[in-house]
Amino acid sequence: MITRLFLSAVAAAAVAFALPAVASAATGPVVQPLAVSAAEQQAVLDYWAPERINALTQPSSDNPATAGPDGAPWTTDNAVAKTVGRLFFTDHGEDSSCTATVVDSANGSTVVTAGHCVNNTDLLGEDNQWNAHSMFVPGYHDGQTPYGKFVGRFGVANSSWLANDQIDAQKFDTFDQAFVVLNPGADGTSLQDKVDAAQKIGFDLPGDADVHQFGYPRASADPAREGLPEYTGARLAFCEGPARHWVGTADAPDSPDQYGTACIMGGGSSGGPRVRDFDATTGVGTVVGDNTHAGFFDATGTPCALGSTDGCTRYLVGPQFSTAVTKPLFEAAQHA
């Protein structure tokens, strides 16, 4: 679910000033036990009965199938169809879902997602809590769980994210990234062994690149495509194109490391991967960021004013993974 604010750009000088502050902040990974014991794991599996999962799929529509670079169903049966999946959880008592991705890790049991898909505030931006009943389903489609269900064992987020207030985007949006370490599946096999694939993860790579972004959106920003299977949570969707730098407007600045491409994927696509150097044949690339919120640009590439969308194109953006913020989280997760 995408609950982040829609924000837009500061001057280049302000960006240059803000970058060192992010890198030097006294922050670090927090590893939170989720479901460790056999009883805890079984309770999560029991909680996510098929009818509860199906309740998070939106109704279909009679809209004709339409696809474009800003949103389309992913239909190729390759690595991305196995490594990207739905992450189910309960946020402040409400069932929800995001997207997460298997990344190559030492423990073979690590997925990357958004910070708010692991720890979130209430609707007032208060009462930060770790999400409950965390369960990842790789390759989910149409209610099917082709590789099984994997219960979250640990959540890993940055300590700064745990203070998120849903208001100060400039301060917190950098930290809207997290990892989940998963228990083995029902047959005792690790996630990575089960799907026999993983995506690479990259740090400090340039944000201005051609990217693919994947997700399980439960809504579309384009009314003509609302209710198609890939926008109901039932199937994997993607967008592709050049990533654009999103930093907010002078009166509503965002963190200086936000990137993404034109994309209509809505709630549910949060946590999905932003992948560069993607091979559409093998389905493997390098995850360099995650989907967290939207920004709007006009035809000249100028950020649209906060709340103004007329004549603007929607971009799905999120933090660019870095050595300063992401790598410590990943190291903590893959060795948990």
UniProtKB/TrEMBL annotation:
It comes from the Bacteria. Residues 56-75 are annotated as: Disordered. InterPro entries: Peptidase_S1_PA, Peptidase_S1_PA_chymotrypsin, TRYPSIN_HIS. Residues 1-25 form the signal peptide. One of its GO terms (molecular function) is serine-type endopeptidase activity. Keywords: Signal. One of its GO terms (biological process) is proteolysis. SUPFAM superfamilies: Trypsin-like serine proteases (SSF50494). The keyword Signal applies. This is Peptidase. It comes from Amycolatopsis carbonis.
